Amino acid sequence: MKVLYIYPKGDSLIRQHVELLANGLRQSADICIADSYSVFRQQLKAQQPDIVHCHGCWNFDIIRATMSGRKAGARIVITPHGQMEPWAVEQQTPQAKAGRVFQWQKVCIQRAYAIITLGKLEQKNFLKLKWNQRVEVIHNAIITNTISPGEMCSQTFAIYQKVIDSNTLEQMDDLTADALAVIIKASFTGDRRWCRRIDPISHPQDIDWRRLMIYATHENILNYVDYGISILGLQSPGIDTRHIASYYPDSYTLPSPIKEVVGDYQGNETDYLLRMITQIHRQPLLLHLIELTRELMRDTVNDDQLNEALEEKKLKGYAASLMQVLSEETELDEGFMPLQPVENRQTNKIRKLLTNHLKI
What's the pTM? Predict the structure, then answer.
């Protein structure tokens, strides 16, 4: 894990806090420190950090660093150091509170993976802003003896790990993503001979199992993944994702099986498939794509009837784009597709919605 700190050069109290963290975490992470945007920019390019931890507010260098870090792919953590407390905000000039710095600062805070406040009161006041609900409390060992420097560092590292364990699809390498698709296919076919591609799972030691299993948990497809792994005879490390903490978008809820959303199958396959596709059109989720794929593979599917129903609901074009995505995510074979897959803007939109489901 690589972490890059930035703090305002003239603030000695924040500097002591950052130095204490850096010294305490050097055995657990690669730490770099910047006290200006010019130094930060050099470190960002050279180190390519996983996390950028910004200390302080009302500072244009800190805001620029937040934006640059996010653009470079780092995940942002912000410690305001009390500078967003109501009384601290009141001390700012009217121009500062009404200007671009304040607005940019708000955007940066909204996009941060986590905010670390230094006490319960600061957390309470910060939450009233409603800018970000992912707010943690870690006391500052520089100014209080209620926490030791070691405890402060340990709690900070736990937040960094929580940040890294969030939206793991974004960090997943191509091999692991391809392996997931093969595992999913094996899960609903029950036979590895149905899997077109074996290369992604030929070297299971190269698969990023932690990220794969966390992602499966957040998308509520862990039962499929576990079964697919057993069908393929893969040796995966025993990772209990129930005890791995993560952050989520404010709108996130654990996906429910599609029948809980659209109702149970009632004897009419075309009607059931139409309800499934309609729901996926509203919100594409990987769990629902898997369930749709399983249903399309049943021998009771009538392609002509389904095409007519899709045409009537003006969903035929969308369904064609969806078939292309199914071929990638669940490796659905064309022989089970009720219509030809299509690559177009709608296809890219579906992909983007799936990719951004856990994005912060």
Answer: 0.91
